[in-house]
Each structure stands twice: as structure tokens, then as C-alpha cells.
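Lab notebook: predicted structure, single chain.

Context: the supervisor wants predicted structures on file for every construct in the current expression panel, including those that have not yet been purified. This is the next one on the list. No modifications to the sequence; it matches the entry in the shared construct table.
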Amino acid sequence: MNPVVTVTGLTKRYGHTTALDNVSFTLAENTIHGLLGRNGAGKTTLMQILTGQNFASSGELSVFGQHPYENSGVLTGLCFIKESQTYPQPFQVRHALEAASLLFPHWDGDFASALVDDFQLPPRRQVRKLSRGMLSALGVIIGLAARAPLTFFDEPYLGLDATARQIFYDRLLTDYAEHPRTIVLSTHLIDEVSNLIEHVLLIDQGRILLDESADVLRTELVTVSGSLDALERLGTRAEELHRERMGNLVRVTLRGAFAPADRERAAALGLDLAPVALQELVVRLTSTANGADHVRDQGKGNVRTADKGDVR
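Prediction complete. Output recorded below exactly as produced.
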């Protein structure tokens, strides 16, 4: 697939603080990307730079083959919806949607109207009088109905309840299938969106920890549970991301080439294998990247911290 976004050696500093540190990646067209990471990891700063709302300290970037800053040819193809989306004070819901129809060339008014019904938004209510959930729904509606070739959702759906979030996921997936485009979801609700994400971009402390296809990750990751003796006899070369131990029983998260023969040998040794959820992977990688991983010895009821090279 052709890249919609190309970033090379991107760095952003605020005084002595480095928000982005030599970041390089591409975003493929017609793909749903998950931009994941902890609070303060650099996700919002990155999206602001990609949408021309901030400057990089150094490095190169292109969106649709050009630099986005004050570039109308690029910006008309972008839609950036964030949690703290603001609107002019007098605007009613219908005014916000009318303004969006003028801003986005691919706007679908019929789709927007259907979404207003789905989320039960009152069109004539002033935006400033909307509840947090309704305000989030308005942002989601604009982000979906805009059908921009490159759409960023920076956690605008956190104010939605579980039912409304599911409506968002369902409408997003259905409309994406009919109108493919590049979508970036930045979220803490990793378990909820894991089935939507096709490519994972994990950032931590301003650095890219993971840039991989979700399908590849599903084949590379496994949790192995069983006796310590059996695990040692297995002798896999996969990278160990995390280990929990209770007496002679262990539960280990592994990443690497876990071939069918390895799985058969594990089963023969009495070990149980289970897939690793995307949220668990993010937790393991970001905790390890911060210099340590926590290992719980449940038999003794304590938690100790081990260096990455000594996870036990």
C-alpha cells in the first residue's frame, strides 16, 4: 500500500523536554491504525504536527506527499477530531454540522443525519449546553461523515457510554468497508478497538516501540502457563515480555517465532497456550521500556521489580 504519511527522524522539544524523539514511520492508505501509548507519550503532539497545528524541532514529514503546514491542498483532506473539541459559542448542533459540510469536500449529509438519530442528538440545542456524552457524539459524527482521506480520532469518544461507543465502532467499521480511507484511532480503550485496528503504532516517552501489522502481532504473541520445569524444558527462543510465578507454576508472555512444532512440544509438556490481548501487549512493552518489569510472586504475596534482562 502507498504511504499517506511519511515521517523520518521527527523530534519535538519543549525547552528541556523531548516530546518526540527521532520518530520514523509511515501510515499506509486505506488502513485503520491504532496510535497507542500512555498519557504523555507524545501521541497528541504527533497528531498536531501531522495536521499542521504544531511544528517539529527537526526531522521530515509529508502528508499526501507534501508538508501539511498552511497547505490547503493537504488540509482539505484531513479531519482531526479530539476529546476537547471546541465550537463557536452561539453554535447549535445543526450549525456545527453545516459548518463541517463546508469544510470537508467528501461530506455526506445523509450519513450525518442518520448518525444524529443514532446518537439521539438534539439538532437545535446549543453546543455549549450539550452533556459531555453528546459533545463527544457530535465530534464522532463529524469525524465519520467528513469521510476525509486521512481522519484522526484523538479519544473523542471517551465521553460516550458503552452503548454509544459500540454504535461508533459499528458505524465506523461499516462505513470504512464501503468508503475506505486512512483512519488513526488514539485511545486508552484498547480492548474495545482491538478488533478494528489493522496496524499498531505504539509510542512511549516520545519513541516508537512498536510499528507492526495487527495480524502479524497475533501470530507472534502467546501466553504460556504451566510448571516451571516444563517451561524450562520447552527451551523456546522467543522474547520473554513478562513472567508471573506462584510456587512452581508460571505464566509467561512470549513474543517471537513460535512455530507449530513449538506449540506441539508445549502441549506435550503439559503447557497451556493462549493468545495475548493487544492491551496486555501494550502494558508489557511500555512497562519494560520504562526500565523495569513487575513480576508477581503470588506464593509470597509480594511484587518485585526486575531489569529487562532478568525477568523472573
